[in-house]
Amino acid sequence: MKVLTLDVGNTSVDVCLYEGELRYIGKFEHDKVPYIEADLVLVSSVKPSAEAYIRERYPKAKFIRARDVPLEVAFEGKEKVGVDRLLNLYGAISFYSKDMVVVSAGTALVVDLAIDGIFQGGFITLGLGSGLECLSKKAELIPKIDLRSVRVSLGRNTEEALLGGFINQARAFISKCLKSWQEDYKRSLKLIITGGDGWLFEDLGVYDPLLIHRSLLALSSHSSPL
């Protein structure tokens, strides 16, 4: 059975195809997603304005909503949580641990906590690429810089200062959340990292770039009516 999984994010669409094993197809603009023959098409979307095109391309696509994700939450308003966050947590709990932190690094930097397999909550802040873009637009003398890894103890030029500043800020944010939650809940937490910019933090924990796609597949197996 061929299963196509689409992760419709704020800036692009990631596409994977499952045929016995999961294969990454590529990243596409919202209105340039190719048609790929499949028996089942599963979609995670956080960009409603892009959904009409996806539906036109794949009329039988199943859009996964918050209510479709069998994840228990410790607060009210599950239906208002981004389905990408719920899917990442559902997958991470299924594949790794019931006590863990999921970091999703993309347009936004999201850090979420699960204890005993229950979503406790988390934080959302500006993603690294978004932060760099925002600063270059607001400050005339700040150039537009493409996100890349830089490991310096001190920035010696504008590019090093910007990249090092944003990356170190994000790493400190992730580490602080992990440390604080481990102290609060008095247990060791596994750190799972995903998202388009997750490679910048892969040394901090388990890096799973296709987590949301694997989660969609797991969900389709868990709930056959999909």
UniProtKB/TrEMBL annotation:
GO biological process: coenzyme A biosynthetic process
Protein's name according to its UniProt entry: Type III pantothenate kinase
Record Pfam families: Pan_kinase (PF03309)
Active site: D84 (proton acceptor)
Function of the molecule: Catalyzes the phosphorylation of pantothenate (Pan), the first step in CoA biosynthesis.
Catalyzed reaction equations: (R)-pantothenate + ATP = (R)-4'-phosphopantothenate + ADP + H(+)
Cofactor notes: A monovalent cation. Ammonium or potassium.
SUPFAM superfamilies the record matches: Actin-like ATPase domain
Species: Hydrogenobacter sp
Family the UniProt entry places it in: Belongs to the type III pantothenate kinase family.
Gene3D superfamilies: 3.30.420.40
Gene assigned in the entry: coaX
InterPro entries (alphabetical): ATPase_NBD, Type_III_PanK
Cofactor(s) essential for the protein: K(+); NH4(+)
Annotated ATP binding sites: D7, V8, G9, N10, T11, S12, V13, D14, T107
Primary localization class, coarse: cytoplasm
Matches recorded under HAMAP family: Pantothen_kinase_3
Gene Ontology MF, one: pantothenate kinase activity
PANTHER family: TYPE III PANTOTHENATE KINASE (PTHR34265:SF1)
Pathway(s) where this gene product acts: Cofactor biosynthesis; coenzyme A biosynthesis; CoA from (R)-pantothenate: step 1/5
Localization: Cytoplasm
Domain of life: Bacteria
